[in-house]
UniProtKB/TrEMBL annotation:
Biased composition, class Basic residues, residue ranges: 312-321
Gene3D superfamilies linked to this entry: PAC-like subunit
Low complexity compositional bias, start-end: 281-291
Record region (Disordered): 277-380
UniProt name for this protein: PAC2 family protein
Organismal lineage: Bacteria, Bacillati, Actinomycetota, Actinomycetes, Kitasatosporales
Length: 380
């Protein structure tokens, strides 16, 4: 039994989790949880034992200096709690860490143990995958669940995915078997510019989370960061005619696929959602906390949204061709941390359509990658 000290009784708590690694393209999912933790000044109340779940040759600890004293930070998963103020206060339990290297079932059982002790009503797991989506269009976000009843009541998709999975898929299934309502939200990141960070995808996940659990999230500088990111990619893509042509093809395919769902009813629902979130009568967005939520303290403008969502397995009326090939990388001056590359890296056939595995990633530019084969959220 897990005993929690210094954690008060929570109000309608929802657990929001994200894990760095395979299911975190562009660091969009982990970036969303980090944003929540930063804006609401979350306080860590528990951390999983790194020895139990991580291979330190894969996820290495880091050494740092604190007033001349050397300290070590071990890779692990931490849990923090934040209280959202306002007329209808509620609590979020934030789970942020790295996809474990081993003992996934024990890992999920430990997370569920915390959820049980805290009285968590629902678990929302954030993920991001690589997809055939142009950076110039709203980021598609799919909400999926393994619970048929939950899919009907919350307007979600019931997952039909089959194939390799990550910790997001395993944790969702563990929640379902334990009788805990669980939803995963997946943002599609353009596969040709997958380097982190991707503030536009992070913003899309937060907007979808707002709708799902009916809260208002202070966005801070994230909308401006998203606009700057898109502008930087626009400028770089415009300098290469092959890249620009490929992006245009993706835009045409996306627009054609979205047309049947861009009905008047869909547009009206989207507009009502926008008004509901920004309704002045609802008061301002909750202010960040004061950092003293636990008893024991010792220890903007929303991004535009598409009227449709990318549905796992949905057939598109037009398939974009493969990206242009080039053997010699071509660089342009660095803008927004994204020097342009025209080379086409080879994707191993054994890697499913999902973010690359954990490890250091540098924002080394706009890379045109081979078109992924699968169109459903990997790991769901």
């Amino acid at each position: 039994m897990i005993e929690l000290e210094g954690v008060p009784e929570l109000i309608d708590p929802v657990m929001v989790a994200a894990f760095e690694g395979w299911n975190d393209a562009g660091d969009a999912a982990s970036g969303a949880v980090a944003h929540l933790d930063r804006e609401w000044k979350g306080e860590v109340f528990a951390a999983l034992d790194a020895e139990d779940y991580y291979d330190f040759q894969v996820n290495r600890p880091t050494v740092w200096l604190d007033n001349g004293v050397r300290k070590i930070t071990w890779p692990t998963t931490r849990l923090s709690v934040v209280r959202i103020g306002g007329a209808k206060p509620r609590d979020l339990v934030l789970v942020r860490g790295i996809e474990p290297s081993m003992r996934w079932r024990s890992f999920c059982n430990e997370i569920l143990g915390f959820a049980h002790e805290l009285g968590v009503e629902m678990v929302v797991i954030l993920g991001a995958l690589l997809g055939d989506t142009p950076h110039t269009r709203p980021v598609p976000v799919s909400g999926v669940t393994s619970d048929a009843d939950l899919a009907r009541t919350m307007d979600l998709e019931e997952t039909k995915y089959e194939g390799p999975t990550g910790i997001v898929g395993i944790l969702q299934e563990a929640c379902t078997h334990a009788g805990v309502p669980a939803v995963s939200l997946w943002a599609a990141v353009p596969h040709y510019v997958s380097q982190p960070p991707n503030p536009k995808a992070t913003l899309a996940l937060l907007n979808r989370l707002e709708d799902l659990i009916d809260i208002r999230i202070p966005l801070g500088e994230l909308p401006e960061d998203a606009r700057a990111w898109q502008l930087g990619v626009d400028q770089l893509a415009a300098e290469d005619s092959e890249v620009a042509e490929y992006v245009q093809t993706l835009e045409e395919a996306r627009d054609t696929a979205d047309l049947p769902e861009a009905s008047g009813d869909a547009i009206a629902r989207e507009f009502e959602r926008y008004l509901r979130r920004r309704d002045p009568a609802a008061g301002p967005a909750p202010e960040p906390g004061d950092g003293s939520y636990l008893r024991d303290t010792s220890g903007g403008l929303p991004a535009p949204r598409s009227a449709s969502r990318t549905s796992p397995g949905r057939k598109r009326s037009r398939r974009p061709p493969r990206p242009p090939t080039r053997t010699t990388p071509r660089r342009s001056p660095d803008r927004a941390g994204l020097p342009l590359h025209g080379a086409v890296p080879t994707r191993p056939s054994s890697v499913p359509r999902a973010p690359p595995g954990p490890g250091p990633q540098t924002p080394d530019g706009l890379k045109i990658r081979p078109r992924p084969r699968q169109s459903s959220p990997a790991g769901v």
